[in-house]
Amino acid sequence: MRACLLFAAAVFGLLSGSVWSEVIRYQLRDEQEASSEASRERLKYLVDCALPEGVAVSVSHNGTVYQFDGAMGLAPGWLTRGLTVEEQQLLTTCLLARTNFFGKRVLLSLRANDDVTAPAALQVSAQEALDNPYFEAAFFGNIFIDNPQLFVCAGPDAGAREKKLEAMRRVCSLPAPAEAGGPGHSRCSFLLVGVCSANTYKQNGIDYTRQALKVYLPDPDLAAAEFTGAAAAGAQTHH
Q1: How far apart are alpha carbons 134 and 217 in whole angstroms?
Q2: N or C: which end of the chain has fewer CB within 10 A?
Q3: 188: closest CA among 96, 110, 105, 104?
Q4: What residue segments make up the domains of the chain, in order of their start?
Q5: Distance between CA atoms of 181 and 239, rounded to whole angstroms?
Q6: What angle do CA 29, 140, 203 make, to 5 degrees?
Q7: pTM, full prediction
């Protein structure tokens, strides 16, 4: 999927409530990229990360039409050309950061290392920063090369970090048990490179500093208290 992603653009009017809105929809160049449930799930997140809101990708497979919507717009040029190395790395980090070992949807605050030059989708408001103060980990690498590189470095919290992240269903930055691929790998099979610092973003002669994405979460102690209270009240959590 390193080549141009799509071809044949068209504008479709989609009914949203009582208001018609235009969404630019493109047909996928290679239908085999959506031939399985796993590949469609991967494509869903790739398109979400790469293309902006208001742009969608569609593909027909075995008589079923699938549509994948853009959101973050981290690599909009992928519509008409191959990805640059920097775009490959940025989309990789977006995918890795959003990977969930349990297959659960968890709200995240994604942040670039450089807030000044970060794309609009990675600009963080003061309220978002306040609501999500806990630095879980940073993710980086490149899945588009022949020998994919998947890295994660851990946030600095040394106090019951494992218990906190397990409670929040975010364990891809935690060490894997020895029988599951460790030592040296996370529970999601990413290579663990220690606690995040300036040096951890430089791996195998490549500096991923500008493309790495940090994941911040709500305060684990407050989140645990809210979860306990909700469970006691019989509330249901929707993901």
Answers
A1: 5
A2: C
A3: 96
A4: 6-79, 85-231
A5: 29
A6: 120
A7: 0.82
Cβ neighbors of 58 (< 8 A, separation 6 or more) are 25, 26, 27, 28, 65, 66, 67, 68
Give pLDDT, residue 23: 72
Instruction: Copy the structure tokens of residue 11.
Output: 């504008």
DSSP of the chain: --S--EEEEEEEEEEETTEEEEEEEEEES-GGGGSSHHHHHHHHHHHHHHSBTTEEEEEEETTEEEEEE-BB-S-GGGGTSPPPHHHHHHHHHHHHHH--TT------EEEES-TTT--GGG---HHHHHH--EEEEEEEEESSSSS-EEEEEE-S--SSHHHHHHHTT--TTSBPPGGGT-SSBBTTSPEEEEE--TTTTEETTEE-TTT-EEEEES-HHHHHHHHHHHHHTT-----
What are the per-10-residue average pLDDT scores of the chain (239 residues)?
A: 45 33 73 82 92 90 88 92 93 95 91 84 93 96 95 87 92 82 82 92 95 94 55 34
User: Cα dist. 89→103, 139, 140, 165 in Å?
Assistant: 23, 10, 7, 25
Per the document, the length of the chain is 239
